[in-house]
Amino acid sequence: MGLKETQAYQFLKFTNLSLKNLGIREAVVPPVSPFKEYPDAKKIKLFIDEFPPTPNFFEILSKRRSKRGYKRAPLSLKEISLLCYSAQGVTGIAGPYLLRTAPSAGALYPIETYLAVNFSSEIEPGIYHLEIRDFSLALLKKGYMGKILSELALGQAFLGGASVIFIWSAVLSRTISKYGSRGLRYIFMDVAHICQNVLLASEALGLKACPVGAFFDEELNKFLELDNGESVIYMATVGK
């Protein structure tokens, strides 16, 4: 079977835009809430009191490398706050939209951020959800999750030594309700913008990071207790 027979190629061609298909949708997908929150969860307030001095931006770019060897060293609340801010911190308001550090098609922001905090001097180990509107972490599960996440990521052992693991999911309907199937392209662009922000922020803070795209999708979704309209699409480790 050649390239043109693959589902990937067929999807790319199916979602091409032309003057003939503008506005045409193969299905009606109703919009969903722009925010996911866990109101009953214990929350840890994140904070940015000031931005720390960092190297020159182009020096940061030149030094960025994917690093997988970590010291199991703790990160502070401030370091984790800065990493979360780089991912999806709110930087402005435009009508009903909370504009953020990373761009999003149509300002729809389909990406949800979860953190597995493995080693921190101020935050207990566990799985957390980044709550955008009040910039906090909602505790979902207590305990060190490095080992199970390594197993869910096809046995990549370095996840167990990372101080934190970012897990990004997509609430598909947020984008697909407006853009149809082509919206899936935009969703992957969105998460790539967010991940790169975290990678560069890690370098700026003297930390190391590595994006992760290989994992057992359904098992990871089940571990996070996501519904069928939300699915994990990317991860990244950060540590010292």
Automatic annotation (TrEMBL):
The keyword Transmembrane helix applies. The chain crosses the membrane at residues 152-172. One of its GO terms (molecular function) is oxidoreductase activity. Residues 62-240 form the Nitroreductase domain. Pfam families: Nitroreductase (PF00881). Keywords: Membrane, Transmembrane, Transmembrane helix. The keyword Membrane applies. InterPro entries: Bacteriocin_Proc_Enz (IPR052544), Nitroreductase (IPR029479), Nitroreductase-like (IPR000415), SagB-type_dehydrogenase (IPR020051). This is SagB-type dehydrogenase domain protein. It comes from Thermodesulfobacterium geofontis (strain OPF15).
